[in-house]
Design brief:
Blueprint lengths: L5 E9 L8 H14 L16 E3 L8 E11 L5 H11 L4 E9 L6 H4 E9 L6 H12 L5 E4 L2 E4 L4 E8 L5 E10 L2 E2 L2 H7 L8 E9 L5
Parallel strand pairs: 3-11
Antiparallel strand pairs: 1-3, 1-4, 2-3, 5-9, 5-11, 6-7, 8-9, 9-10
């Protein structure tokens, strides 16, 4: 056992029925998979020991993702391909490992360095791109866009960092948003859809990117 643990970073997708599995359950899912993979895991200290595991950001229920990230630590170094194979075999089919590799222990935590998230939203068939653009322009023209969640009100206007629209076909319109994801300003695309009079349940919302501060490496 090494005094210095080996930090492993995983980028993975979460699709299918797992879009209805919450953040804490996803963490427990990975803890079980890591144990089943029989890796030389590093545990926390103290009476109630648990696997050292750090997920980047909570993915809201109903969202799919192609860009989730987590870190875990090993007591011993192993071949990256072997780690990937063992872990993938222990995970459900709706979670696929995209990338896996060692990263420096000195890097900040994923949660602490996340600054924004990229989302791709497939709108309902009846929601045309032209109408959506008009509604979004009216919303963004307001001096403030207050959203109240858990008895806390945020102004979403400065949290909408980028947006674009692409018409894929006559039946589907896709909207792209880059939204702030900091502890002091975490914007959600389903909140924006509701402000625009669109039911998020009628859309396909996919997180396609997590963006970190420059010192994340």
């Amino acid at each position: 056992m090494s005094d210095t643990p080996f930090r492993v970073r995983v980028c993975y997708s979460k699709t299918g029925n797992l879009r209805f599995v919450g953040h804490l359950d996803t963490q427990r899912l990975f803890e079980r998979a890591l144990r089943r993979a029989r890796l030389p895991l590093r545990y926390t200290q103290g009476f109630n020991k648990h696997i050292r595991l750090n997920l980047a950001s909570a993915l809201p229920l109903g969202f799919i993702s192609s860009s989730e990230m987590l870190d875990f630590w090993l007591d011993e170094s192993m071949d990256e391909q072997e780690i990937r194979q063992k872990l993938q075999e222990a995970l459900p089919v709706d979670i696929r490992i995209i990338e896996l590799g060692y990263v420096d222990n000195l890097l900040p935590s994923l949660q602490g360095s996340l600054i924004s998230s990229d989302y791709k939203i497939t709108l309902p068939e009846e929601e045309t791109g032209e109408v959506f653009q008009q509604k979004l322009a009216q919303l963004l023209a307001q001096p403030e866009i207050p959203v109240t969640r858990r008895e806390k009100t945020l102004d979403y206007k400065p949290l909408i960092l980028e947006h674009s629209l692409q018409a894929v076909s006559s039946d589907n319109t896709i909207v792209n948003f880059k939204l702030s994801s900091t502890p002091g300003g975490n914007a959600r695309p389903d909140d924006l859809l509701e402000l625009l009079g669109i039911d998020p349940a009628d859309c396909v919302i996919e997180r396609v990117g997590l963006n970190f501060s420059s010192n994340e490496g």
